[in-house]
């Protein structure tokens, strides 16, 4: 005991004299790019989004995703670009509408295509993070009511089991549902995504079904893979934003910011802690259900972080709720405020609410065709991660959205998020200056643990 005390005192004294630098990015930190099947593959004819895109007026400039980046015919090139970027992890989604175009009818060739991709990546030293639902649904599911249909939990589970059986052994990370609240905001609160409900009162049921579907998928993936000796990690990718009042002193703006934070940011993540999906917006919408099977269904916290909104309530003029950016703020080509401090704020909250939970930044990026802002944007967000890692946070990856310019949903091809630009028609990929920088940056971080100046 005495001996221990003396060495502890000696060590402490030495530590004081020669402070050991806390580690920044450790060699096991993964650099990653993220994509989604519908946005890159093309030919997703059996999906609700394909139908949506063919409806006039839904997508900017009348674009559709029928060709997208034609990713399957450019696999060699894209994988070699990932190598140039120094990528260790590729986050992509598998497409339910292609794998199960009709109920119970599975296309084995489609699943095998993904399995081959996963194996190919592995031989290149790149791990896979597979998303099972990234905004699109098979038409047959949408026709039964999509996320409003209570049968979706079982239907999704059948598809998930199929994918887990085939790809499972080679996939260490699974995202069940990407950004459940973006689906709700885009397709239920407003009408920029299918099914285009445009009614705040419609959100409770689809949200409950998403939590149920996620929970069931979580248990199915573990049942199938754990029994074979694998230990996959399964979670959501949550889109979290900072919501601040437009006028700090205005109680209505402050109330709005609080409500958006409660419902949009935290209602679903918190349901994985206590099973309660609970919120209330007086007179408009509420939920108070207990979903016990959701408890403990996040092995990691997947965070998609982009921006913040300032919210303004105007009593006398429609629209009554407005989203604004801070005065004088730097904004991206889509008008989103550049706000790395927001990542810091959200990480503090995540670490408080989910202490010790592994965190992956499953998306972060910006629309920047001219590539003027991308390098400082990435650097500033990575600097926030670095500070948290030094502080002991178990942050395990950074996924940049995205590899190539692609189909940006309602924006069509008008918003360019790629490290590589994509030429229309020829589909030629060209590295932007930020792609070259990214490749140098990842190599230097691996060597030094630090982001280069
Ligand atoms: C999302 C999706 C991506 C987007 C990206 C840029 O966050 O909306 O996950 O599919 O393309 O975020 O908006």
Count of individual beta strands = 13
What is the top-level CATH class? Alpha Beta
Which structural class do the helices and strands define?
alpha/beta
Question: What percent of the residues sit in helical stretches (DSSP H or I)?
Answer: 40-55%
> Could you report the average pLDDT, rounded to the nearest whole number?
95
CATH topology name, in short, is TIM Barrel
Descriptive overview:
With 453 residues, the protein is an alpha/beta fold. The chain has a single domain, classed as Glycosidases (TIM Barrel). It is built from 14 helices and 13 strands. It has an eight-stranded parallel beta barrel with strand order 1-2-3-4-5-8-10-11, surrounded by six helices. A two-stranded antiparallel sheet has the order 6-7. Helix 12 runs parallel beside helix 13. The relative contact order is 0.13. Residues 1-17 have low confidence and may be disordered. It binds D-gluconic acid.
What does this entry show, briefly?
By secondary structure, the chain is α/β, with parallel strands linked by helices. Helices cover 40% and strands 19% of the residues. Helix 8 (152-167) packs parallel to helix 10.
SSE topology sketch:
Elements: H1 2-17, E1 30-34, H2 37-40, H3 48-53, H4 75-85, E2 89-93, H5 96-99, H6 108-123, E3 127-133, H7 139-143, H8 152-167, E4 173-178, H9 180-189, H10 204-226, E5 233-245, H11 251-274, E6 276-281, E7 285-290, E8 300-313, E9 321-324, H12 340-353, E10 358-363, H13 374-390, E11 395-400, E12 420-422, E13 429-431, H14 433-448
Parallel strand pairs: 1-2, 1-11, 2-3, 3-4, 4-5, 5-8, 8-10, 10-11
Antiparallel strand pairs: 6-7, 8-9, 12-13
The structure holds D-gluconic acid.
């Amino acid at each position: 005991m005495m001996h221990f005390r003396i060495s502890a005192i000696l060590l402490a004294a030495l530590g004081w004299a020669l402070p050991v630098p806390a580690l920044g990015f450790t060699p096991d930190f993964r650099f990653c790019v993220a994509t989604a099947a519908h946005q890159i593959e093309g030919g997703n004819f059996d999906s609700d989004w394909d139908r949506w895109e063919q409806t006039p007026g839904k997508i900017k400039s009348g674009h559709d995703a029928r060709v997208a980046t034609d990713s399957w015919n450019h696999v060699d090139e894209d994988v070699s670009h990932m190598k140039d970027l120094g990528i260790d992890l590729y986050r992509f989604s598998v497409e339910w509408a292609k794998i199960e175009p009709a109920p119970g009818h599975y296309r084995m060739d489609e699943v095998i295509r993904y399995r081959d991709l996963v194996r190919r990546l592995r031989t290149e030293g790149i791990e896979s993070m597979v998303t099972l639902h990234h905004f699109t649904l098979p038409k047959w599911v949408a026709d039964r009511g999509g996320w409003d249909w209570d049968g979706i939990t079982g239907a999704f589970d059948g598809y998930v089991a199929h994918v887990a059986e085939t790809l499972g052994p080679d996939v260490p990370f699974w995202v069940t549902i990407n950004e459940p609240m973006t689906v709700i905001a885009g397709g239920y609160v407003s009408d920029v995504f299918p099914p285009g409900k445009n009614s705040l009162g419609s959100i409770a049921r689809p949200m409950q079904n998403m939590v149920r579907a996620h929970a069931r998928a979580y248990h199915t993936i573990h049942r199938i893979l754990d029994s074979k000796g694998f230990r996959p990690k399964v979670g959501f990718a949550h889109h979290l934003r900072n919501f601040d009042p437009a006028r700090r002193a205005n109680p209505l703006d402050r109330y709005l910011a609080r409500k958006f934070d409660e419902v949009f940011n935290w209602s679903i993540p918190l349901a994985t802690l206590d099973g309660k999906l609970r919120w209330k917006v007086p007179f408009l919408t509420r939920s108070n259900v207990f979903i016990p099977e959701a408890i403990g269904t996040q092995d990691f916290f997947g965070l998609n972080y982009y921006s913040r909104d300032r919210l303004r309530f105007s009593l006398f003029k429609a629209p009554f709720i407005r989203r604004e950016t801070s005065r004088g703020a730097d904004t991206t080509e889509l008008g989103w405020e550049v706000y790395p401090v927001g990542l810091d704020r959200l990480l503090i909250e995540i670490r408080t609410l989910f202490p010790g939970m592994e965190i992956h930044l499953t998306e972060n990026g910006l629309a920047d065709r001219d590539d003027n802002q991308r390098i400082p944007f990435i650097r500033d967000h990575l600097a926030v991660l670095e500070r948290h890692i030094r502080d002991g946070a178990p942050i395990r990856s950074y996924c940049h959205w995205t590899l190539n310019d692609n189909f940006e949903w309602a924006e069509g091809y008008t918003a360019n998020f790629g490290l590589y630009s994509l030429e229309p028609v020829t589909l030629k990929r060209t590295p932007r200056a930020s792609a070259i920088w990214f490749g140098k940056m990842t190599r230097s971080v691996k060597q030094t643990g630090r982001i280069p100046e």
